[in-house]
Amino acid sequence: MSELRLEELSAETASAANTLEIRPEQEDFATPVTYTEEEPSVDPSKAWSRVIRKDQEVVGFIRAYFDPEHPLPELRSCIWRITVAGSAQGAGVGRFAAQAVIDEATTRGFDTLHVMWTPGEAGPGDFFHRLGFIDSGQTSYGDTIGTLSLN
Fold first, then answer.
1. Do 150 and 111 form a contact (C-beta atoms < 8 A)?
2. Which of 29, 23, 16, 25 is nearest to 55 (CA)?
3. Which letter does DSSP use for residue 68 in this model?
């Protein structure tokens, strides 16, 4: 049986992560590469990025951000991006990725984890709700902020 595993981002895995194909109906909900540039107080060195492999294939990508001093609470400990190949969706890859971030946030001493998503029928809101995130606000650009208690 194949197991999922995390791997640090490298030149080879970044290329694979950048070419993951999601389902067409999800395209409007994909986080743009320039996402971090929208918030000038974000320090790229505090990003935590991993690929998810199943056997030798990259099937997902996760990026989180950890900055306990960030002025916006929702950016102190947050999931920035989960991308799962359309062919691997429904097989626990997204849940595996989210759990990896939950574990990392807990290890770093955070008691909450946040995520932001664009609302919509094909968007990731239901996925995050199934993980236990609750709607806790809205960004200035209309995305939903979800919060998960880690206690």
1. yes
2. 16
3. T
- 77-84 and 47-54 strand pairing: unpaired
Query: Which of 33-37, 93-97, 130-134 shows the lowest mean pLDDT across its residues?
Result: 33-37
Read off the pTM.
0.83
All structural domains of the chain: 4-149 (3.40.630.30)
Pairing state between β 112-117 and 57-66: unpaired
The 3-class SS string of 78-132 reads EEEEEEECHHHCCCCHHHHHHHHHHHHHHHCCCCEEEEEECCCCCCCHHHHHHCC
The DSSP call for residue 29 is G
Give the separation between CA 35 and CA 85, rounded to whole angstroms.
20
Largest Cα span, the chain: 45
Burial class (CB in 10 A: 0-12, 13-18, 19+), 15: exposed
The reported pLDDT for the residue numbered 67 is: 96
pLDDT value of residue 23: 54
For residues 85-91, give the mean pLDDT: 84
User: Is 37's pLDDT higher than 60?
Assistant: no
